[in-house]
C-alpha cells in the first residue's frame, strides 16, 4: 500500500517521559508490590512537579504539604540490616522500637511495702487450732502431723470438716485458690468411712471394712491431671488405713484395666464426667447402691467445658438407684455413714453456670466459706455473684508490651528470673492455645544433647514419653543457672505423655519452666512454683485468678506477671480483684534488666555480637536471630513428600538442570500455625471483656513478629485459598501428640493469602462466639 504522506504530531510537553520499569525474578507477590510502589511514586511526582527544572527525585522537606506524612528519622540499627537470605526473598525486617503504639497508663513509682502482706490462705496458728478438735480421730490427726507435716487446718478446713462429719446436708464450698479445699472434703469422708472399722474407744473391729465392702464416695473433676492429683492426696491420707482403696477412671487410659480395678473393689472413686458416664452405662460391676457422697470439684470449670449433660446423667442414675442400708457383707451403714446421699460442690465463684449446677445436684445446701464475714456478705447479697481475690501474699505485676516486643520481653523476663541461683525454682507460663505452646517450646529449647550442654549432668535413662515434651532451655540460662529445663503440656498430648511430663516438672530438682494452656490452671498443686507468667491473658477474669493461684499456695509467697498490649488491653487491670496493689510497668525496665548481659545463642558459638551492645541493640539482634532461624531452609535435601525414586525437576540457581526440592523449615510452618491459632483464640474472650480484647484493633503484622515471622500469614479465618493444586505434605506433628487438633490444610503448607489478611477483621467478627476449645488445647 502506498504511503499517503500523512504525518501525526504528538505534543509531549516539557515533562520528561518516564521509562517503564519491569521487575524480573523473585516471587510474583514481591514483583507486584514493587510495581505498585513505582507506579504510585511516579503518579505522585507528576502531580506535584510544576517546575520542569526540578529533579525527578528530591528529599522530603520538613515543611511539606500537610497531607503527606513526615518520615521518621532514626538511627539505623542491627534489625534494619537485611540478612543475605532476606536480600534474596525481598523481605526486610522492621525495627522493634518504631511504630509501636503508646501506652495509655501513667507509670508512677510504686511505693515499696513496709512489710510483706500476711498470707490469707495459710494454716491457722494457735494452740487451739488443730485437727483433733475438729472431730477427726487421733489416728488421722497424728498421721497428718507426722507424715504430711500438717499440724493445723486452714480456715476453709476449720469451717467444713465439723459440718461434714456431724451433718448430712449438701454443701457448697467456696474459697480462694491454694486454701486446702481438697482436704476439706476428703478428711470428713475418710473419717466417717474409717469409723465403720473402729469401736468407740478407737480399737479396730473384728470385721474391718475393706475394698470389697462397697463404693462409698465418687469425686468428679474436670481434667485428668486434677483427678490424678486428688488421688495422690487421698492415697497419702489412706496410708494410715491400708484396708481402704481409691482409684481413678479418666479418659485416655484403658477401660479394660479400669473395669478390672473396679471389679477387684474400690471404696472411693475419682473420675472425669465423661468416663464415669461411660462406666455407668457399660460396666455392670459398678454398683452405686452404697454411694453416700458425690463431690463435684471445680464445678464452674466442668460447666464451662460442656459437662452439664454428663453431670445430669450421673446425678440421675445415682439418685435413681436404691440406697442400701447395709452392704453385701451385712455391715450396717446407717448411723455411721450419712442416711442420705450428700452432694458437695466446690467452686471459687458463684457464677450463673455454678448456680445452674447447684440446681441440678444440690438440695437444701449450706454455703461454707473461709470466714463468717464472707458467708454473711453472701447472704446479704443473695448469692448472685461472688468471687475471691488472689492471696494477699501474691505479688502481681502487669507488663505493658507492644506486640512486636512480646517474644524478646518474655526471654528477658525469664533470663532475669534465673539470674540468681535458688531464687526461683519453678515457673509456669500460660499460653492461649496448643499450637502456640508447641511453637514456643521448640523455638526456646536447646537442640543439643543434654550431655553436650552440661558434661557433669548425671546419665539417666530417657523416658520415651517425655522425649518431645522435656528439653533443656536456651537463651534464658545464666552462669548461676547454666541448666534450665523446659516442659510443655496441653490437651492435644496423649494421656501417658501428659502424666509423664507433669511428673517430670514436679520432681525436677533443677530450675524448670512449664509452658502450658489452661489445662494446668485448675487445682494443680506443684511444690516450689514461685512465678506464674500469663503470656496470653486468660479468656475470662475468673480463669486469671485460677492461673495465678498455682503459686502462693498454703501461705507460701509467690509472684505473677501478666502481659498486656498497650491500648484497650490496659483497661483489663480494672477487672482484677487483688488483695494487694498491682504493679504496672513498661517493657523497657524488663528488657534492661534481662538483657543487661549478653545472651547465649544456641549453635552460634558466641554471644550476641559484642558485649558492648546496649540492651536495645541486644533485643533487636535477638529478634533478628529468631527471624533468620525461621527463614532458614534446608536446601539440597530431598523432600519427604516427594515420590520415591523421583527427584524434583526445575532450574537451580546455577542456570538450569535438575535440582533437588527444597524442604521448608518446620519451625516456620509451626510459627505460622501458632500465629493463626493465637488470632482465632484471641477472638474467644468472653463477651463482657471483648471491649478490652478487641480483635479489630489487633495489629497483625506486629503480632506476627512475636512469632518470629516477617509478615502476617493469611487464611486466618480458614477461608478457601485461591490455589487449586495442593501438594501433599507429610504430617510434621511431634511424636506423642494426638490428631484431634484444630486443622487447616493451608496451615501445613504455609501458604500466604494476602486477601485473607485484609479480610481478617471482618471475618473474625463471625467467630466471636466460637467454642472455648483453645482453653484446653
TrEMBL record:
Q: Does the keyword RNA-binding apply?
A: yes
Q: Which InterPro entries match?
A: DEAD/DEAH_box_helicase_dom (IPR011545), Helicase_ATP-bd (IPR014001), Helicase_C-like (IPR001650), P-loop_NTPase (IPR027417), SPB4-like_CTE (IPR025313)
All copies of domain Helicase C-terminal, residue ranges: 406-603
Q: In which residue ranges is the amino acid composition biased (Polar residues)?
A: 90-102, 729-738
What reaction is this protein's catalytic activity?
ATP + H2O = ADP + phosphate + H(+)
Regions of biased composition (Basic and acidic residues) lie at: 59-70, 739-749
Quote the subcellular location field of this record.
Answer: Nucleus, Nucleolus
**What is known about what this protein does?**
RNA helicase.
The family assignment reads:
Belongs to the DEAD box helicase family.
Domain description: The Q motif is unique to and characteristic of the DEAD box family of RNA helicases and controls ATP binding and hydrolysis.
The protein here is known as ATP-dependent RNA helicase
Organism field = Bombardia bombarda
Amino acid at each position: 500500500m502506498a504511503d499517503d504522506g500523512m504525518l501525526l504530531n504528538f505534543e509531549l510537553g516539557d515533562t520528561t517521559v518516564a521509562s517503564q520499569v519491569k521487575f524480573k525474578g523473585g516471587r510474583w507477590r514481591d514483583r507486584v508490590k514493587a510495581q505498585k510502589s513505582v507506579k504510585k511514586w511516579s503518579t505522585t511526582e507528576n502531580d506535584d512537579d510544576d517546575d520542569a527544572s526540578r529533579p525527578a527525585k528530591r528529599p522530603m522537606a520538613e515543611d511539606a504539604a500537610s497531607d503527606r506524612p513526615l518520615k521518621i528519622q532514626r538511627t539505623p540499627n542491627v534489625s534494619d540490616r537485611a540478612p543475605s537470605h532476606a536480600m534474596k526473598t525481598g523481605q526486610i525486617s522492621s525495627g522493634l522500637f518504631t511504630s509501636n503504639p503508646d501506652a495509655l497508663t501513667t507509670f508512677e513509682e510504686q511505693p515499696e511495702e513496709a512489710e510483706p502482706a500476711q498470707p490469707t490462705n495459710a494454716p491457722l496458728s494457735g494452740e487451739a487450732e488443730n485437727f483433733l478438735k475438729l472431730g477427726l480421730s487421733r489416728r488421722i490427726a497424728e498421721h497428718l502431723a507426722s507424715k504430711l507435716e500438717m499440724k493445723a487446718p486452714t480456715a476453709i478446713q476449720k469451717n467444713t470438716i465439723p459440718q461434714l462429719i456431724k451433718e448430712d446436708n449438701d454443701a457448697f464450698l467456696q474459697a480462694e485458690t491454694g486454701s486446702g479445699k481438697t482436704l476439706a472434703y476428703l478428711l470428713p469422708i475418710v473419717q466417717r468411712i474409717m469409723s465403720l472399722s473402729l469401736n468407740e474407744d478407737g480399737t479396730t473391729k473384728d470385721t474391718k471394712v475393706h475394698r470389697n465392702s462397697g463404693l462409698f464416695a465418687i469425686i468428679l473433676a474436670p481434667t485428668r491431671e486434677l483427678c490424678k492429683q486428688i488421688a495422690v492426696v487421698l492415697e497419702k491420707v489412706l496410708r494410715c488405713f491400708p484396708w481402704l482403696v481409691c482409684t481413678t477412671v479418666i479418659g485416655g487410659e484403658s477401660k479394660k484395666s479400669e473395669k478390672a480395678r473396679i471389679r477387684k473393689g474400690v471404696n472411693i472413686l475419682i473420675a472425669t464426667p465423661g468416663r464415669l458416664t461411660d462406666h455407668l452405662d457399660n460396666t455392670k460391676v459398678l454398683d452405686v447402691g452404697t454411694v453416700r457422697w458425690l463431690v463435684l470439684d471445680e464445678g464452674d470449670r466442668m460447666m464451662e467445658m460442656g459437662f452439664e449433660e454428663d453431670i445430669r446423667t450421673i446425678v440421675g442414675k445415682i439418685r435413681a438407684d436404691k440406697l442400701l442400708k447395709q452392704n453385701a457383707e451385712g455391715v450396717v451403714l446407717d448411723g455411721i455413714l450419712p442416711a442420705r446421699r450428700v452432694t458437695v460442690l466446690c467452686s471459687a465463684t458463684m457464677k450463673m453456670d455454678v448456680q445452674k449446677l447447684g440446681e441440678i445436684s444440690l438440695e437444701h445446701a449450706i454455703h461454707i466459706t473461709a470466714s463468717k464475714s464472707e458467708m454473711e456478705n453472701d447472704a446479704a447479697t443473695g448469692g448472685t455473684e461472688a468471687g475471691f481475690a488472689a492471696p494477699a501474699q501474691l505479688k502481681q505485676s502487669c507488663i505493658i508490651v507492644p506486640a512486636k516486643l512480646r517474644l524478646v520481653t518474655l526471654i528477658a523476663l525469664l533470663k532475669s528470673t534465673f539470674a540468681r541461683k535458688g531464687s526461683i525454682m519453678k515457673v509456669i507460663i500460660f499460653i492461649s492455645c496448643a499450637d502456640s505452646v508447641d511453637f514456643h517450646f521448640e523455638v526456646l529449647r536447646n537442640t543439643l544433647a543434654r550431655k553436650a550442654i552440661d558434661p557433669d549432668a548425671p546419665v539417666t535413662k530417657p523416658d520415651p514419653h517425655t522425649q518431645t515434651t522435656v528439653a533443656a532451655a536456651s537463651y534464658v540460662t545464666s552462669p548461676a543457672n547454666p541448666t534450665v529445663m523446659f516442659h510443655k503440656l496441653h490437651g492435644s498430648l496423649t494421656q501417658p505423655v501428659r502424666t509423664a511430663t507433669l511428673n517430670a516438672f514436679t520432681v525436677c530438682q533443677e530450675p524448670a519452666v512449664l509452658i502450658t494452656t489452661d489445662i494446668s490452671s485448675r487445682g494443680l498443686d506443684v511444690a516450689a512454683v514461685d512465678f506464674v507468667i500469663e503470656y496470653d491473658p486468660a479468656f475470662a477474669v475468673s480463669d486469671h485468678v485460677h492461673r495465678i493461684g498455682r503459686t502462693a499456695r498454703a501461705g507460701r509467697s509467690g509472684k505473677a506477671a501478666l502481659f498486656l498490649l498497650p491500648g484497650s488491653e490496659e483497661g483489663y487491670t480494672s477487672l482484677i480483684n487483688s488483695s494487694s496493689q498491682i504493679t504496672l510497668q513498661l517493657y523497657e525496665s524488663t528488657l534492661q534488666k534481662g538483657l543487661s548481659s549478653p545472651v547465649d545463642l544456641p549453635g552460634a558459638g558466641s554471644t550476641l555480637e559484642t558485649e558492648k551492645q546496649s540492651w536495645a541493640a541486644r533485643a533487636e539482634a535477638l529478634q533478628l536471630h529468631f527471624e533468620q532461624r525461621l527463614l532458614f531452609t534446608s536446601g539440597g535435601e530431598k523432600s519427604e513428600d516427594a515420590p520415591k525414586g523421583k527427584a524434583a525437576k526445575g532450574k537451580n540457581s546455577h542456570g538450569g538442570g535438575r535440582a533437588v526440592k527444597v524442604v521448608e523449615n518446620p519451625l516456620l510452618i509451626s510459627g505460622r500455625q501458632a500465629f493463626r491459632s493465637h488470632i482465632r483464640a484471641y477472638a474467644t474472650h468472653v463477651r463482657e471483656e471483648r471491649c478490652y480484647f478487641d480483635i479489630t484493633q489487633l495489629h497483625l503484622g506486629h503480632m506476627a513478629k512475636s512469632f518470629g515471622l516477617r509478615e502476617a500469614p493469611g487464611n486466618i479465618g480458614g477461608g478457601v485459598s485461591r490455589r487449586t493444586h495442593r501438594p501433599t505434605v507429610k504430617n510434621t506433628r511431634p511424636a506423642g501428640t494426638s490428631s484431634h487438633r484444630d486443622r487447616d490444610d493451608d496451615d501445613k503448607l504455609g501458604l500466604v493469602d494476602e486477601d485473607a489478611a485484609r479480610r481478617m477483621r471482618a471475618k473474625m467478627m463471625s467467630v466471636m462466639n466460637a467454642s472455648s476449645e483453645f482453653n484446653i488445647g
